[in-house]
Design brief:
- By secondary structure, the chain is α/β, with parallel strands linked by helices.
- The protein has four domains: 98 residues, 3-Layer(aba) Sandwich (Glutaredoxin), CATH 3.40.30.10; 202 residues, Rossmann fold, CATH 3.40.50.11540; 91 residues, Ubiquitin-like (UB roll) (Roll), CATH 3.10.20; 84 residues, de novo design (two linked rop proteins) (Up-down Bundle).
- It is 42% helix and 16% strand.
- A hairpin with a 5-residue loop joins strand 12 and strand 13.
Length: 508
């Protein structure tokens, strides 16, 4: 009887030796004449256990991790094929607390299926969403997406249903769907995990969007730093096309050259059209006049990959999760100096403290948590005093923060927050497209000014200048790159004044 062993092909697992483990398993099984089938899956997202391998047993899958190639002989000797005891055995994956606490909707198949098997995809609920969309019709499909409360998971949080309806109502000879997979925020990897672990969910989501708004072609814009994701998506498109799933919808991949600003939707459109990635002024909105001057729906990859599940199970089921106007689930990506880094999909509403200390397990260094940056390099730094903040769009906005793409980066008490503020300004200067003056010039002047603060040169006057500069960046920039840079800078100054040579205020 053949035993199936699952080894992730996800880039994070490969970076720590998953390919070597797979090779060792095949070689050792051959030497021992064991009947083994190796299945390369995506990752479940428990990065501290990677490479985490799983063996199929009558009692279900049993996981072991982190496994090195040198561990394979001892694992087989101990009874890996039967899921037997070993120091690396972590048991049934679903019972691992990190996974057990999750509500996996968008990532339900990630780490479970063979990413390039349509049979696997369909066996785990794939293409149920598209079938229901055909039953509802284009207008009904848009209404269902709107009723679910799904908002853009790329950072802006704009309601997906409104964007789709706007494009659907626009008159044009052609329309487009663009999937923004230019995942450039620090500490984020949800897009990459889906592309490498469940690419058909992206394809199905884009196909549904195309049907709903009347678009016949879609583009997936992927950053060049994701070679594994690009390769898997290309292969998945071929598989879907050969199976007849793309007969009415043409799909093409475009690879970006690594510019952070191309994560902004209009700069992304410029790049797809073959021009330098510079931000366009709005209006017109892309839903009215976007790619090649035609109505275009631009959604983040996680947004589109969530659509099939919403259609399959109904808008009410999805909207039942979350809090306030933040409905459904969010893939929270925990990174930085943290014990249990990984992807945690959960309904909106968890507090920041729960995410960092209970789910993330505190710092990997063992030192106290001092700051947490949520929302990528342009997100605010939150101190422990704000750990009661619920993870939802409005709660973060109320505290001058951003959820962004869901990245959570943890810092211990050795971090220098003045240096972090400087990095934000430097990052803005390096990544600016150069089109607007506040971003192009303001970021450079900001670095010069904060260097004077760090050197102790007229500290108060220069801090006042930085605050004034941040106001100009926030309200005068064309896009969020310059407009959001003040979040990390001002939050660092406000919450960690001692790192800028100012006394900390003690609450009465």
């Amino acid at each position: 009887m053949t035993t199936r062993i699952f080894v992730p092909r996800d880039a994070a697992a490969r970076a720590v030796g998953a390919d070597r483990v797979a090779d060792a398993l095949l070689a050792e099984a051959g030497r021992r004449k064991l009947d083994v089938t190796l299945v390369r899956t995506g990752s479940r997202g428990l990065f501290w256990l990677e490479p985490m391998i799983e063996v199929e047993t009558p009692a279900g899958r049993i996981a072991y991790g982190p496994v090195k190639a040198s561990d394979v002989p001892a694992l087989l000797e101990a009874g890996l094929m039967q899921g037997s005891a070993h120091a690396l055995r972590v048991g049934r994956p679903e019972e691992i607390p990190f996974l057990q606490r999750q509500t996996r909707i968008t990532f339900a198949r990630c780490g479970i299926v063979d990413p390039l098997s349509l049979d696997d995809y369909r066996a785990h609920g794939g293409y149920r969403g598209e079938a229901r969309a055909r039953e509802l019709g284009p207008a009904g499909t848009i209404e269902e997406v709107a009723a679910s409360g799904l908002r853009g998971r790329g950072g802006a949080g704009f309601p997906a249903g409104i964007k789709w309806k706007t494009a659907a109502d626009a008159a044009a000879d052609r329309k487009y769907i663009v999937c923004n997979a230019d995942e450039g925020d620090s500490g984020t990897y949800a897009d990459r995990m889906l592309m490498e672990g469940d690419p058909f969910s992206v394809i199905e989501g884009m196909t549904i969007a195309g049907y709903a708004v009347g678009a016949g072609k879609g583009y997936i814009y992927i950053r060049s730093e994701y070679p594994d994701a690009i390769r898997t998506m290309e292969q998945a498109i071929v598989v879907a096309r050969n199976a007849g799933w793309l007969e009415a919808f043409e799909l093409e991949i475009r690879v970006g050259a690594g510019a952070y600003v191309c994560g902004e939707e209009t700069a992304l459109l410029e790049s797809i059209e073959g021009r330098r990635g510079q931000v366009r002024a709005k209006p017109p909105l892309p839903a009215h006049r976007g790619l090649f001057g035609r109505p275009t729906v631009i959604n983040n990859l996680v947004t589109l990959a969530t659509v099939p599940a919403i259609l399959a199970d109904g808008a009410k089921a999805y909207a039942a999760f979350g809090v306030g106007r933040s409905r459904g689930t969010m893939p929270i990506q925990i990174a930085g100096n943290v014990r249990h880094g990984g992807l945690f999909e959960a309904p909106f509403g968890l507090t920041l403290g729960e995410i960092v200390e209970q789910i993330g397990g505190g710092t990997r260094s063992g030192r106290p948590v001092r700051a947490v940056q949520v929302g990528g390099p342009l997100g605010a730094y939150f101190p422990r005093a704000l750990f009661d903040t619920p993870f939802d769009y409005e709660a973060y906005t109320a505290r001058d923060g951003l959820i962004g793409h869901g990245g959570v980066v943890v810092f211990d008490d050795s971090v220098d927050m003045a240096r972090q503020a400087r990095f934000a300004l430097e990052f803005c200067g390096i990544e600016s497209c150069g089109k607007c003056t506040p971003c192009r010039i303001g970021s450079v002047r900001g670095v010069e000014t904060i260097d004077r603060v760090i050197a102790g040169d007229h500290r108060d006057a220069n801090l006042a200048l930085i605050e004034d500069l941040c106001q100009t960046l926030k309200f005068g920039s064309l896009c969020a790159l310059g407009g959001f840079t003040p979040y990390p800078v001002m939050s660092a100054i406000r919450h960690f004044p001692e790192d800028f040579g100012r006394p900390r205020r003690v609450a009465a």
